[in-house]
Hints:
Helix content is about 55%, strand content about 10%. By secondary structure, the chain is mostly helical.
Amino acid sequence: MREDLVALADAAANENVHAAVRQIGTLHDARHVIFDNDTRFMFASVFDGSWDTYIDDFAQTVVGARFDKVFSHSEGFPGVTDPGVKDWFIAQQEPAGVFVSAYPDLTVQQIYKDQRVDDAFQAVLDTPEFRAALDNPANAELLATPAFQKLMEEAAA
């Protein structure tokens, strides 16, 4: 299993895996942990939406094959495309005692959008045209608004 996890970690850098995770668009993070002298295994993930959709989405991408490879080491795992796989996963689940999120109200899609908007805004900030607009007296009223001031403060942070 350790060898398969190393291969999975190497594959995580693979463009196809990243493309599949991006296409699914609901996975915040995932981790695999082997513990208790290599006798127990834990998979934990954070995702948006329903659990059923999450499992279905992964089964239909290259990630599903990776799941099969790693979970094949688990007793009784039927395969990610098997109709009984969800029942198997549910039988293995343990609830988290505590779960804390730094951004509980943001979906993966909102985070992607925030990144795109920030990238675009940062590119605008770096243009001579933006600097000229800041120096133009005709824009003084807009630049003095609390909303614009907050925007600039956040951009500088």
